[in-house]
């Protein structure tokens, strides 16, 4: 429905705060079920009013999903250095202007890798007539010769297994296999994709294939970045679908397998691009900054709906709603839409460098980059007393299913360069259990994002941002690196 909470009495707006029970995803047309307003009993009248004006519209207006449709269906895939990435920058600036939120660009030099042609096949032999492979070049891959390359395949299931083979990989295609089946496995196996091809190249391999890092597949390959050392050997590298990885594994158990691979990717000179920065200036302490981050770039496949269009619209919507409050919060709320998270992290590093003198005044940083699922809770990486400071502010999150503290990560790739400045990190954790079904694939499109889940997480981000900016006290700065485990995904 489109009724604005601004037209509603505060009591009804408070009912909306607890209306979105965190059950299984519901259709966008499902009615909002009122619940008692007692969930916000720990807040003052002014805080309850702010809660109604932030959470209510996030749940009811559908603005975040409509904006996500603009980004995904309108701009499309937006890999760093591409024309679409620049179109996304201009879209963000126009959107912030329409919201009445001051915004500007900050320069970032980004890599410009282009995918090109890609195909492969298991070569015909006495055991097979030949089988096509569903594959996708990894970002940063070198090209094959124009006519392609053909070589025997050797399978490994870890970086250690690769090292143990030594010179036996020379002249071969190294196939990195693994057993990822749930989201928690991503961190265990992602190094095969990001570091494996470079390691194989150093041992004399002519190419690398990596089983897609995925929790579901209909023969859908999942791309991602792979890194080669400056001046070191580079080889063609591609992700193969889960089904094709299993086929390769079975056939290798029966004897020699050869693969023919054609990749036409290219590395162009670095391109000029931008982070997009916007802010709602604080009324009392404008030099103290609560940063909300997400990355504007995506891979060049699918349309980046979960990764990271959902995060982009969540933080943009938080700024829009906070800007519409009758009174700005005490501190400045700053949104940064980072460029080049996917294949370089140049935007995150550029922001930390450009704002190094300000970082001691960054009182909290929150990054949304785990998809558009429903919110689960709040996590912290701060000094002592952080939970005590924020606990009174969690009540409006109860009805969203997020009114609790969670152990584990509270960081993100783009805000990680701020860690040396000991900026406190806050996380709004979302359910990303099915995130890797579509992550980095052609299937990461708008239809995979549930509008109701997106609205709940948007509401949670808006309220947590406001709480951090309005709370009388500050989070203590952490004394060391985050030690509660890695974030749910590493690029």
TrEMBL record:
- What are the annotated GO cellular component locations? extracellular region; lysosome
**Record flagged with keyword Metal-binding:** yes
Chief location bin: endoplasmic reticulum
| Family annotation (SUPFAM superfamilies) | Zn-dependent exopeptidases
Alphabetic keyword roster: Carboxypeptidase, Endoplasmic reticulum, Glycoprotein, Golgi apparatus, Hydrolase, Lysosome, Metal-binding, Metalloprotease, Protease, Secreted, Signal, Zinc, Zymogen
- Peptidase M28 domain location, by residue? 275-462
The keyword Hydrolase is annotated on this UniProt entry: yes
User: According to its UniProt record, what is one Pfam family this protein matches?
Assistant: Peptidase_M28
Q: Which GO terms describe its molecular function?
A: carboxypeptidase activity; metal ion binding; metallodipeptidase activity
- Signal peptide limits: 1-23
Gene Ontology process terms (BP) = proteolysis
Alphabetical list of Gene3D superfamilies matching this protein? 3.50.30.30, Zn peptidases
Cellular compartment(s):
Endoplasmic reticulum; Golgi apparatus; Lysosome; Secreted
Its subunit composition reads: Homodimer. The monomeric form is inactive while the homodimer is active.
Task: Give the protein's recorded name.
Answer: Carboxypeptidase Q
């Amino acid at each position: 429905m489109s009724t604005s909470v601004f037209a509603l009495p505060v009591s009804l707006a408070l009912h909306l705060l607890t209306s979105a029970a965190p059950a299984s995803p519901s259709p966008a047309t499902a009615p909002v079920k009122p619940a008692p307003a007692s969930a916000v009993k720990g807040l003052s009248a002014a805080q309850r009013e702010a809660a109604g004006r932030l959470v209510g519209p996030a749940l009811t207006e559908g603005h975040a999903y409509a904006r996500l449709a603009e980004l995904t269906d309108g701009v499309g895939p937006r890999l760093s250095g591409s024309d679409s990435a620049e179109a996304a920058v201009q879209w963000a600036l126009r959107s912030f202007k329409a919201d009445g939120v001051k915004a500007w660009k900050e320069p970032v030099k980004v890599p410009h890798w282009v995918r090109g042609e890609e195909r492969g096949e298991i070569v015909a032999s006495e055991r097979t007539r030949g089988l096509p492979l569903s594959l996708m070049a990894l970002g940063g891959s070198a090209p094959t010769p124009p006519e392609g390359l053909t070589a025997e395949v050797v399978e490994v299931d870890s970086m250690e297994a690769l090292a143990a083979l030594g010179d036996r990989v020379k002249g071969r295609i190294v196939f990195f296999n693994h057993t990822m089946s749930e989201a928690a496995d991503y961190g265990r196996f992602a190094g095969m994709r990001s570091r494996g091809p470079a390691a194989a190249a150093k041992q004399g391999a002519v190419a690398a294939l990596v089983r897609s890092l995925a929790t579901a597949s209909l023969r859908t390959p999942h791309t991602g970045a792979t890194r080669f050392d400056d001046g070191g050997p580079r080889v063609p590298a591609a992700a193969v679908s889960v089904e094709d990885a299993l086929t390769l594994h079975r056939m290798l158990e029966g004897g020699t397998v050869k693969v023919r691979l054609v990749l036409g990717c290219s590395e162009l000179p670095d391109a000029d691009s931008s982070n997009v920065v916007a802010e709602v200036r604080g009324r009392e302490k404008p030099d103290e900054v609560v940063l909300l981050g997400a990355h504007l770039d995506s891979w060049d496949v699918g349309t980046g709906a979960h990764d990271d269009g959902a995060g982009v619209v969540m933080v943009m919507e938080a700024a829009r709603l906070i800007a519409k409050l009758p009174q700005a919060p005490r501190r400045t709320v700053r949104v940064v839409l980072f460029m080049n998270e996917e294949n370089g992290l140049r935007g995150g590093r550029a922001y930390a460098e450009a704002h190094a003198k300000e970082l001691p005044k960054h009182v909290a940083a929150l990054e949304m980059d785990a998809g558009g699922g429903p919110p689960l809770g709040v996590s912290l990486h701060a000094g002592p007393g952080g939970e005590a400071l924020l606990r009174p502010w969690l009540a409006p999150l109860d009805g969203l299913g997020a009114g609790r503290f969670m152990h584990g990560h509270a960081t993100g790739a783009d805000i990680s360069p701020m860690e040396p400045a000991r900026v406190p990190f806050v996380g709004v954790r979302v359910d990303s259990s099915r995130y890797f079904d579509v992550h980095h694939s052609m299937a990461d499109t708008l239809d995979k994002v549930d509008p109701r889940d997106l609205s709940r997480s948007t509401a949670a981000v808006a309220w947590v941002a406001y709480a951090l900016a309005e709370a009388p006290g500050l989070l203590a700065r952490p004394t060391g690196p985050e030690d509660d485990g890695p974030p749910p995904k590493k690029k």
